[in-house]
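Exercise 7. Given the encoded structure of a 501-residue chain, write a plausible sequence.
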């Protein structure tokens, strides 16, 4: 989608106009007063009748008189002014964009609201762009029916943000460009998570990372199973050994403006299909386990955005890609493996495989002494029990890093909530026959036990945060995404870097 910004009157441009309205405010005293006059009081009439109140998520289509330049006007509720934030603007743009597509129009103008003082013009531009792009995502790759072809025939191609403040144009455009790139990257992550396991194998995921690297100018290094065997990534290889599809360790690097600085590292769990291995999952819902690579998809897509935005930091994106399958060669419950770090692991449940592959990936990247490591993984059902689908669980060893992630979550809309990772929890994963075991105590504190296990493989003194995204990577329809993969984490990672100090 092309997203532009212009200063001027909203009724000079496209055939469809969208305007965000605050709840409980006098239309004539609002920014939309001039538009209401041009529409001969249509907006005031909607408020007076109670058909539209400006509540968040409300939309209504107006049909202007013949002399008016636009054919349609879309009113979108912003909610109360004092509660207006970036998410309110994202959702307003999302509702407007979907309504425009329903009207079978390919372009529209959106009047930038006079929002709360806490939102800069750049942040407003980013939020509006993100909302429009994220909301219009569809995955129709495997559809062949005529109705789908009709859907594909019409899509919104252009959004123009219109501001009455000439001094805001440049900042709005910077924000809109940033928001578009980040949202498109989140949609890329959704595409990857939507691909079925028979298509997106670990090798194919590595090929996709290589393709992206060539396209945007990232460095890309791939370790195959032979390389990993020589180097001793036995925790990762143990998970992969039951599958006919070989594993890959994928490393993407954005050099930034100073190649000599320590990198910031993102690590993604990339289980392209998770049957549970010998500890087989129930058949109901197993089809959704193609999304167990959502952390990997987020890291790969975020690295693409980092390169396109030419962010100054040196950034490493690492993905451990495997398929977890049961077979005569599969890892058994009770097996003991020696990980890349040298620590030994009792594998008591082969369905707790994500932490095993992260153990080796994090130990490998720790050797580069990064400024910080952030891992993303659909790790536990326990985090869904604790936090639902509204936010990811965050655990780590460094308060400063987690504060930065909290700030990025607030800005991006990818919410997180910190869970404790006290030393007592590390006792939950202490092994009987080996150094550590890959499950905790009797299902207690399951999400924390997963993080406690991973913490044993983080290099000494390296700030680290673990994001358990099992509840946020996949969801029902919202204004910002259709049912299925959400692309969660892409925006969080890029916003984290944007404000990194």
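Solution.
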């Amino acid at each position: 989608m092309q997203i532009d910004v212009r200063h001027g009157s909203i009724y000079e441009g496209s055939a469809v106009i969208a305007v965000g309205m605050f709840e409980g405010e006098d239309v004539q005293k609002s920014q939309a007063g001039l538009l209401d006059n041009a529409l001969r009081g249509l907006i005031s009439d909607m408020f007076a009748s109670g058909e539209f109140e400006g509540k968040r998520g409300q939309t209504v289509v107006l049909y202007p008189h013949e002399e008016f330049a636009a054919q349609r006007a879309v009113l979108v509720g912003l909610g109360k002014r004092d509660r207006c934030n970036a998410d309110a603007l994202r959702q307003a743009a999302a509702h407007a964009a979907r309504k425009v597509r329903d009207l079978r129009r390919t372009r529209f103008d959106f009047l930038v609201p006079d929002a709360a003082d806490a939102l800069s013009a750049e942040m407003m531009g980013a939020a509006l762009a993100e909302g429009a792009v994220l909301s219009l995502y569809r995955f129709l790759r495997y559809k062949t029916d005529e109705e789908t072809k009709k859907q594909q025939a019409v899509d919104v191609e252009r959004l123009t943000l219109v501001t009455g403040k000439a001094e805001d144009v440049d900042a709005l455009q910077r924000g809109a460009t940033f928001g578009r790139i980040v949202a498109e990257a989140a949609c890329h992550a959704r595409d990857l998570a939507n691909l079925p396991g028979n298509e997106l194998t670990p090798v194919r995921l590595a090929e996709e990372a290589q393709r992206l690297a060539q396209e945007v100018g990232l460095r890309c290094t791939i370790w195959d199973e032979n390389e990993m065997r020589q180097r001793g990534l036995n925790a990762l290889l143990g998970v992969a050994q039951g599958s006919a599809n070989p594993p890959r360790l994928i490393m993407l690097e954005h050099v930034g403006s100073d190649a000599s600085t320590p990198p910031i590292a993102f690590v993604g769990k990339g289980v392209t299909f998770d049957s549970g291995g010998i500890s087989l999952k129930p058949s109901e819902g197993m089809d959704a386990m193609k999304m167990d690579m959502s952390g990997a998809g987020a890291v790969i897509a975020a690295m693409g955005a980092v390169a396109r935005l030419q962010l100054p930091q040196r950034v490493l994106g690492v993905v451990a890609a495997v398929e977890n399958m049961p077979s005569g060669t599969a890892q058994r419950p009770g097996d003991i493996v020696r990980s890349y770090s040298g620590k030994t692991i009792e594998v008591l449940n082969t369905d707790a495989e994500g932490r095993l592959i992260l153990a080796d990936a994090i130990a490998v990247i720790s050797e580069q002494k990064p400024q910080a490591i952030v891992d993303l993984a659909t790790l536990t059902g326990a985090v869904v029990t604790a936090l639902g689908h509204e936010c990811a669980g965050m655990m780590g060893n460094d308060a400063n890093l987690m504060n930065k992630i909290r700030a990025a979550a607030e800005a991006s809309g990818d919410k997180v909530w910190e869970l404790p990772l006290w030393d007592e929890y590390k006792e939950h994963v202490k092994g009987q026959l080996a150094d550590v075991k890959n499950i905790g105590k009797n299902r207690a504190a399951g999400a924390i036990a997963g993080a406690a296990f991973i913490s044993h493989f983080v290099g000494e003194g390296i700030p680290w945060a673990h994001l358990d995204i099992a509840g946020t990577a996949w969801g029902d329809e919202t204004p910002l995404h259709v049912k299925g993969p959400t692309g969660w984490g892409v925006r969080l990672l890029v916003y984290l870097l944007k404000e990194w100090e």
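Remark. The domain at 195-257+264-498 is CATH 3.40.630.10 (Aminopeptidase). Students should compare their own answers with the one above.
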